[in-house]
């Protein structure tokens, strides 16, 4: 029994779960002490409710009380509610007489299921819980019943003491924010925490008191209220004006937005037109570039052709056909040397060909200039060229085969050979009589053509002055040119070669004159 009693009397701290021992004064409470302890933990709301009847006026404003009443009307059941378990009942289902004065609402889940009974006693769920406000007669009856049951057995008394202690702790826990029982150390910590909360609450109270004092001192006067109202009206008027201005600006903004949209659409159209313009411009630039390239090609070709034309116009057919130059001591025509020296030696076929080219040149120039020789007729035939000497006689008979005319005069034609066979040396001049006569006749023809040129200057072209009269570079007298005889008889090779050179020089002078005349004719024809 002792062990059971010790084990049953052990309780644990509800914070640190340390086993604690209950003091004997608490373990053996009488009903009066039990009621005193439980009544000291009545919630503040109940105390304020009980004390409100004693106060002449409320300690809080009526507006706060109205707010509180509205909150109570709209309040819902709490989510978590501290419940106190029901007391242990005897086997017969009756109340514990020592706990008849306790007023606690117990939930059904905390009630112990009573054993089935056959009597007419009601179950604990159906038994009404007495209120604290019952009459003194009811309390006297409960105390009498408790005193009547004090003579029970000692085991029942011990159980009732533990039940009373546990019931007291449950009531204390239900009526406060602290779970009981707690140990001394936890109590000290709890007291410290409550002291801090008290300090904070005191500071808050002082702050509220100070704020209330300042609020009461800052209550505006009638003039201040009137001034504030006038300022409020002015502010509202300014606000209305600002709103009107804002609406006006919003309308302007909407109009500007529409204009901006129209301008953006126009800008897009302009972008399209610009893109089309640049495409056309690039196409035109490409075509222009191709045309310019073609034009440049044609211009270059025209310049090249014009240059060739100029070169061709400047060139003379006579100069190309009869190229007269010199080769040391020899005068050459078309590369044929006219003359003879011991060294270098020139063959007679080359000399005959040179005389043939010279005869062709003079005959061509005379024909081009419209000149007809008197008493002579050139017959260029290459290396076998001849000159016809024309003589007029009064008789009609002639051994040389002259032809008669209607007037009875006869013209004789003597053929002079302007070439040599080369069978005889030059020193034997009498053997070259025919050749000498032909060369003298050629020199006479050259003189006649020179005099014609000197006496007939070329006409001017496009108003420019014409060619003046030219003079032969070397004077020709009978068989001599520049005092050098053209005959082989009684002459030296060097002198004869020099006379041939002078002859070709005069021919070149006449050739240049003929070229100028042709150029002037071409310019005049343009």
Automatic annotation (TrEMBL):
<dbReference type="GO" id="GO:0034271">
    <property type="term" value="C:phosphatidylinositol 3-kinase complex, class III, type I"/>
</dbReference>
<feature type="domain" description="Atg6 BARA">
    <location>
        <begin position="312"/>
        <end position="515"/>
    </location>
</feature>
<feature type="region of interest" description="Disordered">
    <location>
        <begin position="108"/>
        <end position="161"/>
    </location>
</feature>
<dbReference type="InterPro" id="IPR038274">
    <property type="entry name" value="Atg6/Beclin_C_sf"/>
</dbReference>
<dbReference type="GO" id="GO:0045324">
    <property type="term" value="P:late endosome to vacuole transport"/>
</dbReference>
<feature type="domain" description="Atg6/beclin coiled-coil">
    <location>
        <begin position="181"/>
        <end position="307"/>
    </location>
</feature>
<dbReference type="InterPro" id="IPR040455">
    <property type="entry name" value="Atg6_BARA"/>
</dbReference>
<dbReference type="GO" id="GO:0000045">
    <property type="term" value="P:autophagosome assembly"/>
</dbReference>
<feature type="region of interest" description="Disordered">
    <location>
        <begin position="77"/>
        <end position="96"/>
    </location>
</feature>
<dbReference type="GO" id="GO:0043548">
    <property type="term" value="F:phosphatidylinositol 3-kinase binding"/>
</dbReference>
<comment type="similarity">
    <text>Belongs to the beclin family.</text>
</comment>
<feature type="compositionally biased region" description="Low complexity">
    <location>
        <begin position="144"/>
        <end position="156"/>
    </location>
</feature>
<dbReference type="GO" id="GO:0030674">
    <property type="term" value="F:protein-macromolecule adaptor activity"/>
</dbReference>
<dbReference type="GO" id="GO:0000423">
    <property type="term" value="P:mitophagy"/>
</dbReference>
<feature type="coiled-coil region">
    <location>
        <begin position="225"/>
        <end position="276"/>
    </location>
</feature>
<keyword id="KW-0175">Coiled coil</keyword>
<dbReference type="GO" id="GO:0000407">
    <property type="term" value="C:phagophore assembly site"/>
</dbReference>
<dbReference type="Pfam" id="PF04111">
    <property type="entry name" value="APG6"/>
</dbReference>
<dbReference type="GO" id="GO:0034272">
    <property type="term" value="C:phosphatidylinositol 3-kinase complex, class III, type II"/>
</dbReference>
<feature type="compositionally biased region" description="Low complexity">
    <location>
        <begin position="45"/>
        <end position="57"/>
    </location>
</feature>
<protein>
    <submittedName>
        <fullName>APG6-domain-containing protein</fullName>
    </submittedName>
</protein>
<dbReference type="InterPro" id="IPR041691">
    <property type="entry name" value="Atg6/beclin_CC"/>
</dbReference>
<dbReference type="Pfam" id="PF17675">
    <property type="entry name" value="APG6_N"/>
</dbReference>
<dbReference type="InterPro" id="IPR007243">
    <property type="entry name" value="Atg6/Beclin"/>
</dbReference>
<feature type="region of interest" description="Disordered">
    <location>
        <begin position="40"/>
        <end position="64"/>
    </location>
</feature>
<dbReference type="GO" id="GO:0006995">
    <property type="term" value="P:cellular response to nitrogen starvation"/>
</dbReference>
């Amino acid at each position: 029994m002792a062990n059971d009693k010790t084990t049953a009397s052990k309780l644990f701290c509800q914070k640190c779960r340390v086993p604690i021992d209950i003091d004997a004064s608490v373990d053996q409470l009488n009903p009066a002490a039990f009621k005193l302890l439980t009544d000291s933990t009545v919630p503040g709301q109940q105390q304020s409710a009980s004390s409100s009847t004693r106060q002449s006026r409320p300690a809080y404003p009526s507006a706060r009380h109205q707010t509180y009443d509205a909150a109570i009307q709209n309040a819902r059941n709490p989510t978590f509610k501290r419940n106190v378990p029901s007391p242990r009942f005897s086997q017969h289902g009756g109340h514990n007489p020592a706990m008849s004065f306790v007023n606690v609402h117990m939930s059904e889940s905390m009630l112990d299921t009573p054993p089935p009974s056959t009597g007419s006693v009601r179950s604990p769920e159906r038994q009404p819980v007495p209120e604290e406000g019952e009459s003194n007669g009811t309390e006297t009856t409960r105390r009498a019943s408790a005193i009547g049951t004090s003579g029970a057995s000692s085991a029942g008394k011990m159980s009732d003491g533990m039940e009373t202690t546990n019931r007291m702790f449950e009531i204390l826990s239900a009526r406060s924010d602290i779970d009981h029982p707690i140990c001394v150390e936890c109590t000290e910590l709890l007291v410290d925490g409550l002291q801090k909360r008290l300090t904070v609450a005191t500071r808050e109270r002082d702050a509220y008191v100070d704020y209330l004092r300042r609020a009461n001192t800052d209550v505006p006067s009638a003039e201040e209220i009137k001034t504030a109202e006038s300022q409020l009206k002015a502010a509202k008027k300014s606000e209305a004006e600002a709103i009107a201005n804002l609406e006006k600006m919003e309308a302007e903004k909407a109009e500007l937005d529409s204009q901006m949209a129209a301008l953006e659409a126009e800008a897009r159209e302009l972008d399209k037109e610009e893109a089309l313009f640049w495409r056309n411009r690039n196409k035109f630039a490409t075509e222009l570039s191709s045309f310019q390239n073609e034009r440049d090609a044609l211009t270059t070709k025209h310049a090249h052709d014009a240059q060739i034309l100029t070169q061709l116009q400047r060139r003379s057919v006579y100069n190309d056909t009869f190229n007269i130059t010199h080769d040391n001591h020899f005068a050459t025509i078309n590369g044929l040397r006219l003359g003879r020296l011991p060294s270098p030696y020139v063959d007679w076929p080359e000399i005959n060909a040179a005389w043939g080219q010279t005869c062709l040149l003079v005959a061509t120039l005379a024909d081009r200039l419209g000149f007809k020789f008197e008493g002579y007729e050139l017959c260029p035939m290459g290396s076998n060229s001849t000159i016809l000497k024309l003589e007029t006689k009064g008789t009609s008979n002639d051994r040389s085969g002259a032809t008669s005319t209607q007037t009875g005069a006869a013209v004789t034609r003597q053929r002079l050979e302007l070439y040599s066979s080369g069978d005889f040396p030059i020193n034997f001049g009498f053997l070259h009589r025919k050749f000498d006569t032909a060369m003298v006749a050629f020199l006479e023809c050259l003189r006649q053509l020179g005099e014609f040129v000197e006496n007939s200057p070329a006409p001017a072209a496009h108003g420019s002055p014409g060619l003046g009269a030219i003079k032969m570079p070397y004077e020709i007298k009978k068989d001599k040119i520049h005092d050098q005889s053209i005959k082989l008889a009684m002459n030296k090779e060097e002198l004869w070669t020099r006379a041939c050179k002078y002859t070709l020089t005069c021919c070149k002078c006449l050739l240049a004159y003929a070229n100028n005349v042709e150029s002037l004719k071409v310019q005049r024809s343009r």
